[in-house]
TrEMBL record:
InterPro entries per record: MoCofactor_Util/Proc, XdhC_CoxI
Organism (species): Aureimonas jatrophae
Annotated Pfam families: XdhC_CoxI
PANTHER family: ALDEHYDE OXIDOREDUCTASE MOLYBDENUM COFACTOR ASSEMBLY PROTEIN, MOLYBDENUM COFACTOR INSERTION CHAPERONE PAOD
The XdhC- CoxI domain, residue ranges: 11-78
Protein name in UniProt: XdhC and CoxI family protein
Lineage: superkingdom: Bacteria
Length: 103
């Protein structure tokens, strides 16, 4: 599989508008380590993973908004917050993800 950053270069050359989500902190049994990436385009196509499927849907939704607004954000998911069952991070971990638009 291609590196997510190589895919970002290719997609950018194709004129796609992109956001990059990066795991910045984990705690407990979070399935992906810090530094893991998820690349998202404005049509919800994506490559990579920030959680092994637990929070990708929520991160993709936020990434599309970041593409539109240009405002980066930090997302937090874990079993102790109100989104725990919506996003499926019931494994006991906690994850923080930074989402930024790529120019």
């Amino acid at each position: 599989m291609d590196d997510v950053l190589e895919i970002a270069e290719r997609w950018s050359a194709e004129g796609r508008r992109l956001a990059l989500a990066t795991v910045i902190e984990t705690w407990g049994s979070a399935p992906r380590p810090s530094g893991s990436h998820l690349l998202v385009d404005s049509e919800a196509n994506f490559e990579g993973s920030v959680s092994g499927g637990c929070v990708e849907g929520a991160v993709i939704t936020e990434a599309i908004d970041v593409i539109e607004t240009g405002a980066p954000r930090v997302l937090e998911f874990g079993v102790a917050d109100e989104t725990a069952w919506q996003v499926g991070l019931s494994c006991g971990g906690r994850i923080r993800v930074y989402v930024e638009r790529l120019v």
